[in-house]
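Training component of the fellowship. As part of building independent skills, the fellow (R.M.) carried out the full modelling exercise for a liganded target. The chosen ligand was guanine. The inputs are recorded below so that the supervisory panel can assess the work.
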Amino acid sequence: MTATLIDGKAFAAGLRTRIGTAVAALKTQGITPGLAVVLVGEDPASEVYIRSKGRMTREVGMNSFEHRLPADTPQADLLALIDRLNADPAVNGILVQLPLPRHMDEAAVINAIDPAKDVDGFHILNVGRLATGQKAMVPCTPLGCLMLLRDQLGSLSGKNALVIGRSNIVGKPMAQLLLRDSATVTVAHSRTANLRDLCRQADIVVAAVGRARFVQGDWIKPGAVVIDVGINRTDDGLVGDVDFVSASQFAGAITPVPGGVGPMTIACLLANTLTATARANG
Ligand code: GUN
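Fellow's submitted model of the complex:
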């Protein structure tokens, strides 16, 4: 079997077009959604993300506000900036780029963001709302994965889903979203025994472990849908957490790296900013 390629780049472009149309409609009412991005320090990977976030925010017609602070900024100064952004009616979404410098308390910073403007869905209130089935801001990468899965499979009800990775950013919220769609969810991680056997039973595999080509092709149940969240820099360039060449021989559908999940993350960030704007304006 040769897998269908899941074109996240095209899906994300379509989503951004729909967001652009909704933004244009809001503008006729005098409302322009605004997204504030805060970067502390000069992590080169974060710089790349922030530049493309800014560009795509402007492309859909939203206002993009960038705040760059030096790596040695006192945490109190960052909290003061977040307070100002919380109070600013032109700002509908706030994203503080992670990781933060080591002297900062990540949880304290995230939880200082107004939960209604928390477009990352990392605030403890949004995490709790998602876990208890209440209306929440949902983290962008797992939301993008869910959209691709629904597009491939329609209903996820009763499917065996294996999430590999237990991070707060991807693995845990991904598991919650799959549960919400009535999948049977297993969360595996670096200490899981018999991962290969678990994988062989999964109709859906979401790989978010951060290890290049970790998931082998012969672990994949024939016909399964494989979503690869990994972005690993290797001598061969960017590769995912799944061994794409061998997995394509078994999977029914699979996301490439790059061009799969990556573009969905920013599109979902814009979707969350639009949602936050709509909620703020009744
Ligand atoms: N760093 C890596 N991924 C993310 C993300 O989705 N949001 C934020 N804020 N920082 C990140």
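The panel noted the following from the submitted structure. The chain has two domains: 32-135, 139-263. The pocket of guanine is lined by residues 95-98, 120, 140-141, 169 (CB under 6 Å).
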